[in-house]
Amino acid sequence: MNATAPTSGLAPAAGIAPPIAAWFEANGRDLPWRREGFSAWGTLVSEFMLQQTPVIRVIPRLEEWLERWPTPAALAAVPPGEAVRAWATLGYPRRALWLHSAAVEITERHGGVVPEDVDALLALTGIGDYTARAVAAFAYGHRHPVVDTNTRRVIARAVGGQAEPAPPSRGRDLAAMSLLLPEGRDESAAFNAAIMELGALVCTARKPGCEVCPIRNECAWRAAGYPAHTGARKAVQKKFEGSDRQVRGLIMAELRATRHPVTDAEVDGLWPDAAQRGRALDGLLVDGLAVRTPGGYTLPH
Questions:
Q1: Where are the domains of the chain?
Q2: 92 in the Ramachandran plot: left (φ > 0), alpha (ψ -120 to 50) or beta?
Q3: What pTM did the predictor assign?
Q4: For 244-298, CATH number?
Q5: How crowded is the C-beta side of 300, counted as CA atoms within 13 Å?
Q6: CATH of domain 1-234
């Protein structure tokens, strides 16, 4: 099937939902955000943390975060730099700033309660379409298609017969998932989580475990003989060692490690290349992750 094939071709595969849901019930991981009684705020925090960060690294940081700031109001009451400091080594620390801003907005606009409406969630800082739908579906049980990278891969293979999904398209991806989504609220929320889990654990990018897949007999890609991907390849991320990202990380680690301003001399000692060091520092200042003070640089306050 061509990568631009119409989503109407997905209709015959609607029956894949029950076996995926049954597999998930028996094999889904016991993760904090899937447990009974987990708060909407906890769900929102987890979704921020899970963006581009593996689950195994998120869980301990999430537990520490929610113990310290169990509500949006609790986080909103501290300076944004404290959120950045607590973010530690999760990476992409601007997410901490965005989450702090969202906590302030939830406190001021919604009485400290995470909204359940997708449009209200989208109006918060740092929340895109995926996160808004994930919170509405997983925290509040609303029936919305929730599509991440793993979901797109499973649909591309099982339904479209393609090794890899086409480039992301909000309209096409949501329509494709909507055709598979069970009608019931509880069933739809469970299936959203189930198909993501199948993509994360079984239908993986590099080594799909077709022998244990619950829909191997319904999979269009398997039936077609596993045709190779012929479309564009994802850009390979540049090496971390020696990159501007590494230098930014070194400066951020220094800022997090102290409560007093980090001097220019201390920054200079972190990396030998002055031009690269300056580039990294300027980027942190522009992003609001570092603030210039009379004594040097600090986290935002």
A1: 1-234, 244-298
A2: left
A3: 0.89
A4: 1.10.10
A5: 19
A6: 1.10.340.30
